[in-house]
Amino acid sequence: EAQVTQNPRYLITVTGKKLTVTCSQNMNHEYMSWYRQDPGLGLRQIYYSMNVEVTDKGDVPEGYKVSRKEKRNFPLILESPSPNQTSLYFCASRTQNTEAFFGQGTRLTVV
Amino acid sequence: GENVEQHPSTLSVQEGDSAVIKCTYSDSASNYFPWYKQELGKRPQLIIDIRSNVGEKKDQRIAVTLNKTAKHFSLHITETQPEDSAVYFCAAGEYDMRFGAGTRLTVKP
Q1: Strand (E) positions, chain A?
Q2: Using the beta-carbon criterion (under 8 Å), do B43 and A40 form an inter-chain contact?
Q3: Do residue A42 and residue B34 have CB atoms under 8 angstroms apart?
Q4: What is the pLDDT of residues A2-32, one digit of tens each?
Q5: Cβ contacts of residue A1 below 8 Å, gap of 6+?
Q6: Residues of B with CB below 8 A from A97's CB?
Q7: B9 — contact with chain A (CB < 8 Å)?
Q8: In the predicted model, is pLDDT for residue B93 greater than 90?
C-alpha cells in the first residue's frame, strides 16, 4: 500500500530536549516536505527536499533541521525545542506536478 | 517561492446551496493546482486537481476553474451536504507546494 508514515503520532517534551520526527515514504517520490499546521495559519512549509542530499528552506525554517540521506526518509529534527514549536506537523511526498501524499500527522507539545 | 492566498477563511451555507472558495497564486510558472479536504483530526486528502492546460474540471458535485492569466483558481461545490463540512485548502507550486490558509466550510442541515 502506497503510504507516508510519520512517527510518533503524539509527543510531549520539555524545552531544550532534542527530538526527531521520522517520515518515510514507499512511493519512490523525489520531493518531500515538512509542514506545520496552526489554527488560522493553514499549512506552512518548514523545509522541502527535491532529492537525496538536496534540501531547502520553506517559509518557517527557524529552529528546525532536516536531512535526506536516502530517498525514502526525511526526518525533522528539533535541536532545542521551544514552546512556540508546539504544533501539528505533517510530512508529505510527491512527484513533480502531482498530488502530495500526507503522513498521519504528529501532534507535538513543548512544555 | 510560491505565495497562495485563499478566501474566505470561513464559509457557512445551508444544505443544498453552493459554496465557492477562491485562491490566487504568485508564480506564473506553477502548473498544478490541487484542492484538499481536511476533516477534524485527519490528514489533508486530495479532492480534485487541475493542470494549467485545462480551464475547468468537474467531478460530480465538485468543480475547479483556473484562470492562468489572472493567476487565480476556484473550487465550486454544488448541492452541499453536511458531510462536506471540513477545512479546504488550495495549493500551488511545481515541487515545493505551498498552501492557502484554509477555508472552514460549515454546511447547516
Answers
A1: 4-7, 10-13, 19-25, 31-38, 42-51, 54-57, 65-66, 76-78, 87-94, 101-102, 106-110
A2: no
A3: no
A4: 899 999 999 999 999 999 999 999 999 999 9
A5: none
A6: 31-32, 51, 94
A7: yes
A8: no
